[in-house]
Amino acid sequence: MFRIIYRKTLATKIHLFEIEAPAIARKALAGQFVVIRIDERGERIPLTLADWDGKEGSVTVVFMEVGATTFRLALLKAGDFIADFVGPLGVPSHIDKFGTVVCVAGGVGAAPITPIARALKEKGNKIISILGARSKGLLFWEDKLRSVSHQLIVTTDDGTYGRKGVVTEPLKELLESGEKVDRVIAIGPSIMMKFCVQTTQPFGVKTIVSLNPIMVDGTGMCGCCRVSVGGVTKFACVDGPDFDGHQVDWDLLFARQRTYLNEERRSFEQWQAQMGKCS
Amino acid sequence: MAKVNLNREPMPKQDPKTRGKNFNEVALGYSAEQAKAEASRCIQDPKHPCTEGCPVEINIPGFVKAVLDGNMPEAVRILKDKNSLPGICGRVCPQETQCEQACTLAKKGAPIAIGRLERYVADWERAHPEIREQQKGQISFNGKKVAVIGSGPAGLTCAADLAKLGYRVTIFEALHVAGGVLMYGIPEFRLPKIIVQGEVGYVKSLGVEIKLNHVIGKIATIDELLENGFDAVFLAPGAGAPMFLDIPGENLSDIYSANEFLTRTNLMKAYRFPEYDTPIQVGRRVAVFGAGNVAMDASRCALRLGAEEVYIIYRRSKAEMPARLEERENAEEEGVIFKLLTNPSRFLGDERGRVRAVELHEMALGEPDASGRPRPIRKPGSEFIMEIDTAIPALGTRPNPIIPSTTKGLELTKWGTVLTDGATERTSKDRVWCGGDMATGAATVISAMGAGRRAATDIDKCLRNSS
Q: Do the Cβ atoms of B299 and B336 come closer than 8 Å?
């Protein structure tokens, strides 16, 4: 059982949990993820690491309420326990001195990208970060991301904060400006990552994405998370989750992510009915 | 000489029509009368070839006589002396190719139903928990610590053997429950999970610590374990990395590796969705590719999950099928349709990326290949389309890369399994042993247990002689 040390709501339906997990905290590296199971009946879901503290013995994850599991997770309080918490899983992000790295964070992607930007900055890279959300109420960690970047551009689709527009616009401008961009990291909803990749393609800049297919075990034994990269099938949980965005078969990823839409709806309706009974 | 009784006691089973709709155990177990009747057939051959045929060398005539005498505590003691997991072995061992094949009465076509008797004794022990307490020996810690990676049959057996010898054992398990393939792979209706947890409970009662949610290679490496207090490591993480057909369309939705299909169904209890949160999708017509025990398990689960038609599609013929005869018969009785000498060439999907059909072609058997079985050869021009909405490649597994890629000095075979010495289970790395599917590739529960036993014996020999 893993105790929730601290929780905070960062934005509309976006929550931060700091969880007591000393063994994971000692080994965690940027880009890795954990698999969480709330209780005996819960499903296993992956959450990318947002932060960790080896001394405190804690791991921090950030999640958005999108279905029954995350709705249930959001109701937990500090002092509550989560049944299972496994990690650190996946291959850590490749951190090296590349030169100038543009880190693009879409929505909840701000959480996993922050430790990656921090590690890259510590390695001596110039970090230009682009933080985007649909509107002001969904933005979070602006200051945190700014503290690990040399430059930060904030966008909202509806213009309620920062620059009006989507993240690909400032990304394109940077690439067109003549600034030498050596690498781009893009993390966020799949469609956002696809658009970022399409934006960088003509400029030939290596673009790393963090894929988020459905997972069950997270340790490479079932193949549920299989993605196609460069025409070869890979398991996102053991070969990734970072991949070369230009090689990813995005349509396949979208199709596989939609596999359980009916079941997800059913679970959500059941959860709603249960909540209705309690209130 | 006394007349030999060749009437084997049949095993009561749920009838095929009913059982195809539920996940309850198919085999119902002997009654006390049946057990005694079957035990009475044993001629107590002093040469006991049955014991020689058992990978863990159970004193079979011994426990069978105790059953006949009605001395159940003694039957339990004899059985548990050599087998820590009898409730499991009695249910899933291929006795027909092991102890029962060696049985003196096998020549007359009526070997003693050793597996059914073993299950009877194990189930009796479960129903009498005070026996476990009474038979628990006094174990004093000998000062040495061993790490076991994986809580499947190899790991549990090795841990139990070492614990009985006074070692402090910690099992590191990647999943959220212990049991490995016993929990995620073998279906509920063949091996009830409550039985598995009962056996795990026995191992824990010997003083073994099980750390769940620990993926060795990620949360700690083997070298770190050896540097931080463990005197030896037994690697038994299984061969958990699924093999796929590698044909076009294999990544369409509703194409599951058998590992994923069985894990969702058995470990995550998807058959009780939405009460349990993990879903699974089974359409009207399911095609399972492969003909081993896992393929039988997957096909029988698919039926229970509501499929109207379930096919086993296999490229060779009936005689070459690797599955246990009992599992094939159970599948057939429940209505699984066998399409033999047939192989897939590609999957076809709809506009939403879901599988809708498979292109199959017929095969003919040629000369034997490296495995000794006739080589299947594609018949040109024999392609045809079969509409399906779920596909399950059940082709076997490869070793999971997490441990080999994070352990220095661990030599592998050309198939990616860990190289081990057959008698001692030693690897090329000092103080590291390995057994089960990680060393042999996908095999049986009992062969994994045998490896766990051999490793424990050798670990004990090595650590006893060291300071």
A: yes
A208–chain B nearest CA distance, Å: 22
Nearest residue of A to residue B250 by CA position? A233
Q: How many Å apart are CA A170 and CA B302, to the nearest integer?
A: 50
**Interchain CB contact of A23 with B (< 8 Å):** yes
List Cβ<8 Å contacts ≥24 apart for A157-166. A157/A132, A157/A133, A158/A134, A160/A135, A160/A136, A161/A135, A161/A136, A162/A131, A166/A132, A166/A192, A166/A195
ipTM metric: 0.95
| B147-161 pLDDT per residue, tens | 999 999 999 999 999
Question: Which residues, in sequence order, are CB contacts of B25 under 8 Å at separation 6+?
Answer: B14, B188, B189, B190, B192
Q: Which residue has the tokens 């990395």?
A: B241
Q: How far apart are CA A169 and CA B1, in angstroms?
A: 95
Contacts of B399 in chain A (CB under 8 A): none
User: What does the alpha-carbon distance between residue A141 and residue A159 come to, in Å, rounded to a whole number?
Assistant: 18
Instruction: Provide the 3-class DSSP secondary structure of residue B453.
Output: helix
Residue B279 has pLDDT above 90, yes or no: yes
Cβ–Cβ of B401/A260 closer than 8 Å?
no
Q: Do B220 and A23 touch (CB under 8 A)?
A: yes
What are φ and ψ of residue B13, in 5° steps? Answer: -130, 155
The number of beta carbons lying within 10 Å of the beta carbon of residue B368 is: 10
Q: Which residues of chain A lie closer than 8 angstroms to B269, CB-CB?
A: 41
The one-character DSSP state at B420 is -
By C-alpha distance, the chain A residue nearest B275 is A41
CB–CB contact B219 A24 (8 Å): yes
Question: E-assigned strands of B301-454?
Answer: 309-313, 337-339, 342-349, 355-368, 374-378, 384-387, 390-393, 397-398, 432-434
How distant is the Cα of B43 from the closest Cα of chain A, in angstroms?
Answer: 46
Residues 241-260 of B with CB under 8 A from A: 241-242, 244, 250-254, 256-257, 259-260
CB contact under 8 A, B263 and A222: yes
CA-closest candidate to residue A72, choices B271, B277, B263: B277
In angstroms, rounded to a whole number, what is the distance separating the alpha carbons of residues B58 and B136? Answer: 19
DSSP H stretches of helix in B317-444:
325-334, 437-440
Please list, in sequence order, all residues whose beta carbon lies within 8 angstroms of the beta carbon of residue B214, skipping any fewer than 6 positions away: A23, A86, B172, B173, B174, B220
Amino acid (1-letter code) at residue A105: A
Q: Strand, helix or coil at B244? A: coil
Interface test with A, best of B213, B223, B352, B356 (most A CBs within 10 A): B213
Does the CB of A214 have a partner CB in chain B at under 8 Å? no
- pTM of the predicted model, to two decimals? 0.94
CA-CA distance, B365 to B379, in Å (whole number)? Answer: 10
Instruction: Calculate the average pLDDT of chain B.
Output: 94
Across the interface, whether the CB atoms of B213 and A219 are under 8 A apart is answered: no
Nearest CA in chain B to A40: B276
What angle (nearest 5°) sits at the alpha carbon of residue B388, between those of residues B383 and B390?
Answer: 125
User: Which pLDDT score is estimated for B467?
Assistant: 58
Please report the pLDDT score of residue B2 as a whole number.
Answer: 60
